[in-house]
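[job 4471] stage=fold_predict status=RUNNING
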Amino acid sequence: MKLRQYAFLLLCALPFAACLKDKGNNDIKELNTFYVDTAGLQTSFEARQSLANLKVEPKVVYSGDTANLTYLWRLYATTSTYDTLSNARNLDAPVSLKSGTYPLELIVTEKTTGLRAFMQYSVQVLAAIPSGWMVAYEKDGNTDVDLIRATDFIANLVKDTMINQAYSRSNEGPMPGTPLNITYLSTSASYLFTTKDAGGLQNTDFRKVMTYPQLFVGETDPPYQFTSFHTGTYSQGMYINGKHAYWGSGGVMLGKLLTPDNTDNYEAAPFMVFMYARNGLFYDQQGMRFLFANQWSGTSSAFTNANAGARFNLNNMGKKLLHLERGFMQGLNNDPYKYAFFKDVSGNGRYLYVFNSQAPATPDVAALDISNVPDILDAKFYAISNKGPAIFYTTASKVYSFTYDYITNTYATPVAGFTAPAGEVITACTMFKSHLGNSAQTVYDSKLLFVATWNEATKTGKVHLFAINEVSGAVTPQPLKTWNVGGKVGSMGYKNA
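[job 4471] inference complete, writing C-alpha cells
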C-alpha cells in the first residue's frame, strides 16, 4: 500500500520538477571566463626611477568581447597611497617613486557586470643612473650618453645591463655638438663637454642642472674654448679653457689661474693631474715648464730647478707635452709619480719621463727615449697602470703595451695586444683606474681597459672591454665583452653610484 502511495506522489511531482527546471533555464546566465593568468609568467619587475618605463604585458583570459574590459594599473607607495600609472591593457609608463620595492596592482573590470579580476606584481625601483661606465658619443651632430653596467667591474651585479640615451631621456634631447669629455666629479655631479655646449649633470638622473656660464663665478660671459676638464686634487674640478687653466671649488670655476709673475701669459696643455697639498699640476706649453696650482687660490707656482746631473728639469723641460697622467709608484706623502709623454718641438723625437713632483731637485725617476718604438708617431691615446710599470698607447687600429725599469732606465719592446677589426677605427681608450670618488673600486684598479671603435661604413659604435695585466702590461688579444653603443664615442669614464 505504501509503495503505491509513493509511486503516486512521484508521478505528481514530475511535472512540478519539470516546471522548476524550465524556470531555472530562463533566469540563470552563464558568466564569461575571466581572470589574469600568471602561470609560468614573470611577476617581478625592475624600473629605473623617472628614466626607463616600467613595462608589463599581462595575460588576461576572457571569453567575451575584450572591448568590454577596462584596466587600471596602480603602484602602491604605502598600503593606502598609490600612483595611478595607466589605463591601458599593457603597462608602459615611467615610475617616479624613490628606490625601493613596491606592489603593483592590475584591476581588470567587466563593464557590463562590474565583475573584476585582480593581479599583484612586485616592482623594484632602481636609482635612475646607478654606478657604471659612462660612454659619451656623437650621433647626427649631437651628444648622448650610454651607461654600461657589467659584472666585470661592479661587485655583486647579477647580470650585465645597459642604459641607453641616459642624457637625452632626462633632458628632452641630446646635447648639441660632438663629445669632448665626460667626467665624474663627486657623488652629486658629473660634467659633460661637447664642441658646442657643456654643463653639470645631476648624478641621479643625468639631468642638466648647471649651464656652461653657471660653471663660472665672477665671469658673466665666459668664452667657450674647451680643451679639457679634470677632477683636481680635492674633487673640485680643474678646467682648461683655450690657453688658460681655471681652478675650482664646489663644482664651479672660481677663476683663471695666473702664472707665478701674476700674468695669464701661458698656454696650458690639455691635461691636469692632482698633487699632494696642491690644487693640481699642469704644463705650460709656451714656457715648456710644469706649474702647480696653489691651494684655494687663483695663483700658480713654479718648481725649483733640478740639481746638476738630473736628466730633466721640471722648470725647463724644453719639449711639447702629449699626455700627462699619474701612475705607478709613490713619492713623498703618498703622492703617485707622474708620467709625461713628450715630443720634440721640431722633429720626430718621442719621450716618456717619469717624475716625482714632491722632489723637484731630483725629479727624474726615469727618462726614456721611445722614438723608435712601433707606431709611436701615430699614437693617439695613452694609459698608465697604477699597479705596475706598465705603459699603454694606441694608434687608430692597435693597442700596444710595454714595461719600463726605472733602475736601469730601460724599457721592453712594445707588444700589440689588440688590432681593431677591419673597417673599425679606435676613437677612445681609457683604463679603469681607482682615484678620488672612484676609490671604492680598487679591486678592479688598472686591470681593465676600455677601447671604443667606430665603423664609418655601417655607422656602428662599439666599446670593447679587455683584461690587462696591471704589472706586465699584457693585453688580451680578444675582448672579454663588446657592447654596441649609440654612436661614435668621444669620451668614457667610470661613475660611482
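[job 4471] summary: The first strand starts at residue 34 and ends at 37.
[job 4471] exit 0
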